[in-house]
Known about the structure:
There is one protein chain. By secondary structure, this protein is an alpha/beta fold. Helices cover about 55% and strands about 15% of the residues. The protein has 21 helices and 17 strands. Strands 6, 7, 8, 9, 10, 11 and 12 form a seven-stranded mixed β-sheet that branches. Strands 2-1-5-4-3 form a five-stranded antiparallel β-sheet, sandwiched between helices. α7 (about 180-230) packs antiparallel against α8.
Amino acid sequence: MPNRMSDIRALIERMVEGQPAVTPEMVENEADCDRRSILEGLLSLSRRQQLLEARNREAEDELKESNRFLDSIVENLPNMVFVKDAAELRFVRVNRAAEALLGYSHDALIGKCDHDFFPKAQADFFVANDRAVLAKKELVDIPEEPIHTRYQGVRILHTKKIPILGQDGQPLYLLGLSEDITERHATQVALDKARIEAERAKRARSVFLGQMGHELRTPVTGIIGVARALLDLPTSPAQESRIKLIKNAAETLLRILDDILIFSRLDAHSMALREEDFDLRLSIDECMSLMRVDAERKGLGVSSTVATNVPVTVRGDGLRVRQILTNLLENATKFTNAGHIELACEAAALTDSEVVLHFSVADTGIGIARENMATIFEAFRQLDPPVPRPGPQTNGSGLGLSICAHLVELMRGRIWVDSDIGRGTTVHFTVRLRRAEGASPSDTSDSHSVSDSSRARRTDCPLSILVAEDDAVNGRAVMDLLEQLGHRSEWVGDGLSAVEREGSKAFDLILMDIRLPKLSGIEATRAIRTREREGNDFPTPIVALTAYASERDEAVGYEAGMNAIIRKPIGPSALSDVIAQLCRPSSPGRARARALDGSTAQPESTIARDELVAIFLRTIPPRLRTLKQALEGAERRTVEDTAHMVAGAAANIGADEISQLARSIEVEARDGHLERARASFRSLMQEFEVRFAGRLEDEADA
């Protein structure tokens, strides 16, 4: 052992340098106590130094392993990761995904900025976004960011940019995470395009069904009318049986057409519910009356009950409520061979402003198998009955229950079925309606029966009716029909005259064409309703007449104050129905009409078909010239209005081909397809000249 202090200093220096200067054996062999104490201290210090060095090596190894782990994660992430310095926005870190996406190696990217790789406009865009992120000192999410790559063209990225702050709170780096969403974006664009195309196709289908439904209803209604007329004539039993078969088949076809039209509107979500006050018990009686004849013919008992907690008057779409009930009652009658059918209604919930009505239609019919319960409300679904029904098998469209389900859903209710094979079926549904102003619960004694309201018949109590129709043929045809029903009528040719005539004379009913000169039917209705409100007069029922009514036309008509819409050509049943519904004998409008107009003049005589054709040939050529000029000048509104008038006039004299072509021109102009409208006009003129060439020469000679 050394004996001098200089030797001890040398030992300490060796320890500082990491060399083992003192060993335990050296301490044990030292006899001098002072020096032994010093050596023990040096030995302890040496051990501590070695322990610290071991721990530091372990920490460094752990740090290196952690860095390798994090580097491995970053490098293997499928999304692009990059880091830029905050000062010059140069790349200081990129992963393999960034290299693959951008098309540049790690060495080529590090130390470079966006302007070294991308077009100036795009680089400026990136730099502006980066500066905004650093200024806000918060994460910024960029949902779609186009980027020009070296080998893959333009890609769409979803990028999140995050500022990395130092201890002083100032940005040091910018971290970017980018996901390549090019394929997803392309898929979404394709889906959006497909959705738009589907919606366009759905709208086109709705328009097509509306037009075709109108075109098909016209001949079907004619068949029904002719069949009814033939049944009024003396016929043999065999002839009567065959005529009834024709009539029943046509009525079935008409119901199918109506179902398809309603379903198409529901499917396109274009049906809006009307808001009107209606007598619920009266509506139930009407539905029961319509099905009672068929039920009693089969020997079925029918009954209806309305709970005392149901308000007399409710507010909602009474037409759609009756449609649901009618469909369910018809189904019950169709599938019930013996027993009875019962309709019940109660208020499941009642507040000061709303009522939830619970309806049930129960029958003792053949029932429904449990496995079919979940599918009976599907469109075009018809279940094969477990036992055959007696009599002729009349198949429907398979849409009745589906329509019911859609309508119930629109009225914020639900529909369900209880049934067993051979034990009958009960269909339940609820609807949420508003309570009418001042309505209160009442018993069923206020119910009224209108079982004969759906029959076209001559009345013994004639009404005074104003016909506002710009086309002379249409006007005279409607007046002729009103005469057959036993009513008096007057005709005006424009909307302004309708307003003036209604102001000078009271009428029980106004039949108003929607498209009139001077004032449209909508504008005329608004003017009449305004005058009635100012004079505190009872409103005169106004019925719109139209050859083609879209959802928008109907909505605007009802908003203006019209009470119903009838499509041309008008049949006696439709006209009789709307008169029976709107003009009951006790209505204030009838009393007002009698008080102000004591005229007992008889209606004009029935107009002959030849006279109608003559009027048509005098009035239509000038309108055809107007139509041609409007098409040449691309005056869409004039084209629509004129074609509308030509279509209605042609339909009333049986010129169906001309009517259809004119209606096509109207719709094509409305949709902006003027070239198609011009082609249809050329076809119309050819048909007109071929059909009426001889009559036109006779008219010219006369």
